[in-house]
Write a structure and sequence with these properties.
The protein is of the alpha/beta class. The protein contains eleven helices and 19 strands.
Amino acid sequence: MSDMKALVFHGPQDLRFESVPRPVPDRNEVLVRVKAVSICGSDLSGYRGGNPMRVPPLIMGHEFSGEIAECGEGADKFKPKDRVGVITNLYCGTCPNCRQGLQNVCENRFIIGTTMKAGSYNGAMAEYVLAPAEKIVPLPDHVSFNEAALAEPLSIALRATKHAGNMKGKSVGVFGAGPIGQLAIACMKHAGAERIVAVDLVDKRLQMAKSMGASHTINAGNDVISEIEKLTEGIGLDCVFDAAGVEATINTGIEVVRNGGTVLLVGMASPKINIELKHAIAKEIKFLTSYMYTSEMKEGLDLIAEGKIDVKKIITAEYPLSEGPRIFSELFSGDSRDIKVILKNS
């Protein structure tokens, strides 16, 4: 068995670029040569330590694209060099959740690059990664590997936007202008939102939010509540998309959403928070949550291919996979101002 290079997570802040055995595809599996893999905030959370979805030793990486390198028996509909994206949620399809269309919360699922109840599944921060043939999505020639790698985070923003309902002509606030927030802005714009207010502490992210479709931006260091009241003439926003998941943003969202409006919770930075419950109830606010995706990854790839959403804008840097340990360290330290980083094999 030959070896390959990979970034292996060995424990908190311990990521090593090293040689590991190259996987061999089994029946109905393909081996994908990774061409682009994105660093997700959940990968950084795993790097920090204490994340049950990142149990070492593990090769992380669930936002990626590449070329078919080898096909196992039964996967002969593909051939080497085919350009592909990969749906990374490997649900069972038979449990009660799957039968209800909730494959995103299947108790038996694996997710490529993570650790779930079913076990760990090595991901795409490597030269090669295994994937079931049924999870392979062919890429049109005009869709770049970088764009295809961002179909997974786009699918998360897309599913959440669909949960929010009809956005045509609505006023929306997006709290947290990281990758998911940026893609949420693009999805809300595509869904017909008339006013999109992006809120973040980092001016560079707010500048990018404008390019993604935000009509207004507010630095979170300012009086966010007062500024949104002025923008909406005291009525409030129809919907707040919370991509941060911290107490301050959620409670500000409760304050600035209109009576009967919707607070859409997607960010998960804080496992527990105290919320302004009485105020939320008195305003008859609707709380919605959204997690992962079901069918939205294929939908997202179609939106990218049709030029309806430009995911390239949020990519701020590309680095060789070999520099992964340094890049993770910089991102973890908070010194980096990158929004979305792509790692590539040489």
